[in-house]
Amino acid sequence: MTDEALILEGIELVRGQQVETRLRTIELADGSWVDLPLLVDLATLSGTVLVVPAQNPPALQAQHRVFVGHYLKSPLDQSPNDPWISFPGDADGNMAARIAHVLYDRLMRHADYLVDIHTPTTGGRYAPFAFLPPPDAGAAAVAAEAMAKAFGVDYVLSTEQGLYVSEQSPHVVLARRGKTALGIELGEGGRLAADITARGVLGLTNVFRHVGMLQGAVETIGRQIVIRSMTVVRAQRAGLVHLKVALNDSVAAGQVMATITNIFGELVEEIRAPLAGPIVRIATFPIVNAGERIIQIGVPR
Length: 301
Ligand SMILES: [Zn+2]
Fold this sequence. Notes:
Number of domains: 2
Radius of gyration: 20 Å
Mean pLDDT: 87
Strand content: 25-35%
Number of helices: 7
Distance between the termini: 44 Å
Order of helices and strands: HEEEEEHHHEEHEHEHEEEEEEEE
CATH class of the largest domain: Alpha Beta
Bound molecules: zinc ion
Low-confidence stretches: 16-30
Shape: globular
CATH superfamily of the largest domain: Zn peptidases
């Protein structure tokens, strides 16, 4: 069950030394713990940080961005069902629109900067990358690119088309209003990884330094390759996937990137790179159907 109170329940407000935070630590898969306050040197922080640990509470509970039980009740009435492409939202709309409305009206529109941190869909892993508003957002897009490079990602997606520049996604809505806003993809859905968590903490620290909320120099990390698109390579056959490449590898056109075998272990497909470029995303589920994406190759700007 979701209403406005539940969405706002998880909000953490960090304002200078007046810290009201309930969620102090998170446990990682290896049993170690990370202190969230290490995000910021609280004594020197200027401004206010609003941390929204779960932008979409029913999706968190369902472990899927589509909160299936609700959607099943009335698929067409509850469509679109993804709050992320429902901004700025609608207080009288369906549940996705209401979630977007609460986030936008109560939080986002009051902020000067937005960093929308995602993990990819379960079963997929990205190299750390940032997605920007489209170039026609002008100064807001230029500012977002500088912030993405300060965060320190391996790839910065600057594109005019596709879901990452939906006019109803939060970073584009804010960019159209002149704010500096971007998204980040880190790690893999459904997993906690200490190295990725550390990367995110360092990235946010860099962003706070970049905008002057923290003292100190930005620590340059990541490959910071600006790409204008990602070419999706899909399986033509169903079966078990055997990846031959890793994230950030550079492949040559025609290179075998993965093979697919049937349940008898017989080779049924070799997946070759249609173009040269760096590997930005890989699928991690071992079993695929025809048409599923296996690998995405970045196309430099
Ligand atoms: Zn995402």
